[in-house]
Design brief:
This protein is an all-alpha fold. Helices cover 59% and strands 0% of the residues. The protein contains 4 helices and no strands. Helix 2 packs antiparallel against helix 3 (34-48). The chain is globular and about 30 Å long. The protein starts with a helix and ends in a 5-residue tail after the last helix. The relative contact order is 0.20.
Length: 66
C-alpha cells in the first residue's frame, strides 16, 4: 500500500495545512474536546483532499497537530 503522505505532500505553508491546524487550534482554544477538534480538522482536510481515503486522513494530519 502506498503511503498517502507520499501522494499528498502538503507543506506547512499550503492552504490545506494551514486550515487544518487553524481549525484544531481555534477549537481547542475555545474549549472543544481534543477528539472533537481532531474530527473537525479531519473534515477540513477531507474537504481539501477528497482523493484521500477517509480512513487514511487521521494518519496524514496527526503529524501536523500538537
Amino acid at each position: 500500500m502506498t503511503d498517502v503522505r507520499e501522494i499528498v505532500a502538503c507543506s506547512p505553508s499550503a492552504a490545506c495545512h494551514q486550515a487544518v491546524t487553524r481549525t484544531y487550534a481555534q477549537m481547542r482554544e475555545n474549549g472543544a474536546d481534543e477528539r472533537v477538534a481532531f474530527e473537525a480538522a479531519q473534515k477540513v482536510y477531507a474537504w481539501h483532499h477528497p482523493e484521500v481515503p477517509r480512513d487514511r486522513v487521521p494518519y496524514v494530519i496527526a503529524d501536523w497537530l500538537p
